[in-house]
Each structure stands twice: as C-alpha cells, then as structure tokens.
C-alpha cells in the first residue's frame, strides 16, 4: 500500500512539474559545455509562473563541487537563453554537472534542473547544432533557432528538450513521503 501511494505521488509530481513549464534545454546529456569558454544556457521561457530565478551549477561528485554554487543571482524568465562566460562558471572538466533553477530567496526551492551533463576540457569541440523546435526555439541571440551547423563565437548552441522541471510540488511530495 505504501509503495502504491508513493508511485501515485511520484506520478502526480511528474504531472505537476510538466505543468510548471520551466525546463532547461541546454546544457543536457547530449549537449555539453567546454571548460574555460563561453557556453550557452537556455530554457523554455514565458511558459512558467516563475518570473525570476537563480541559476546554480552543481556536481554529483563532492570532490568537484561540495554544494551548488550560484552563477547568476537573479535571471528574468524572458530571455530564453544566456551566454555564460568563463568567469561566471569556471568549473573543471568533468561529468556529473547539473544546472538548477531555484527561487532567488530560497535556493532549496527548485523550479527545474537539467539532465547531468559534462564540461569537456578547453579546446574540445562543441556538439553539432540541430534545429530547435517548440518553445525553446526562440532565444535572445537566435542561435538555437538558427539551426546553424557550427557554434558561433565559441558558444554551445545545441538545444535538447529532455529535462524535467521540479518545483514546489517536489518539496511538498518529499514532506508527504516522509510521513507515509
């Protein structure tokens, strides 16, 4: 009975996360960043009730990052993409990274997070770009929508829609699961 209740709760959370509409489209498992380079971060904008969020980077390996660090304190949910400079995110080459979008006043209130992705060593090639579709096709620079075959200005322009958003519902479910 408890397992069934948790399954139903998990399914409800998946629906709630999808309803929020905020998803990270780049980076992803198939779209990496390059260390000490400018990289593009993109998301489905204007499809979420969150008007602002904090952008954090985390790593599953505590030897790389002990805890998530903020790379953008407050980002408006209108741009759809942002160029992350090497000064904003000067992380070492490794796998296990995630981008997290969180409440600017409480970073434990997570709105969305990316798939795990890799930061490749300086000089590595960026992934090839494919034409974006759906809400993420519009970006501030137009790079993701252009479908160009090669990155421009050292940017990682690939887009992928394989990410699930997590929000307030996840925090509620975690509290409910504790009592079940």
Summarize the structure.
The protein has 180 residues and is of the alpha+beta class. The protein has three helices and nine strands. Strand 7 and strand 8 form a beta hairpin.
Overall description:
With 180 residues, this protein is an alpha+beta fold. It is 19% helix and 29% strand. The chain has helices at 2-20, 143-146, 168-179; strands at residues 24-26, 33-34, 39-43, 52-59, 69-76, 81-84, 94-103, 106-113, 117-120. The strands form two sheets. Strands 2, 4, 5, 7, 8 and 9 form a six-stranded mixed sheet that branches. The chain has a three-stranded antiparallel sheet with strand order 1-3-6, with no helix packed on it. A hairpin with a 2-residue loop joins strand 7 (94-103) and strand 8. The longest helix is centred in the N-terminal third of the chain and has 19 residues, at 2-20. It holds the Pfam family Kre9_KNH. Residues 1-19 form the signal peptide.
Jot down its keywords.
globular, alpha+beta, 9 strands, 3 helices, single chain, three-stranded antiparallel beta sheet
Please compute the radius of gyration using only Cα atoms. Answer: 17 Å
Name the beta content range: 25-35%
SSE string, helices as H and strands as E:
HEEEEEEEEEHH
Q: Largest sheet, if any?
A: 6 strands, mixed
Mean pLDDT: 72
Give the SSE map.
Elements: H1 2-20, E1 24-26, E2 33-34, E3 39-43, E4 52-59, E5 69-76, E6 81-84, E7 94-103, E8 106-113, E9 117-120, H2 143-146, H3 168-179
Helix pairs in contact: 1-3
Biased composition (Low complexity): 128-151
Region (Disordered): 128-154
Pfam families: Kre9_KNH
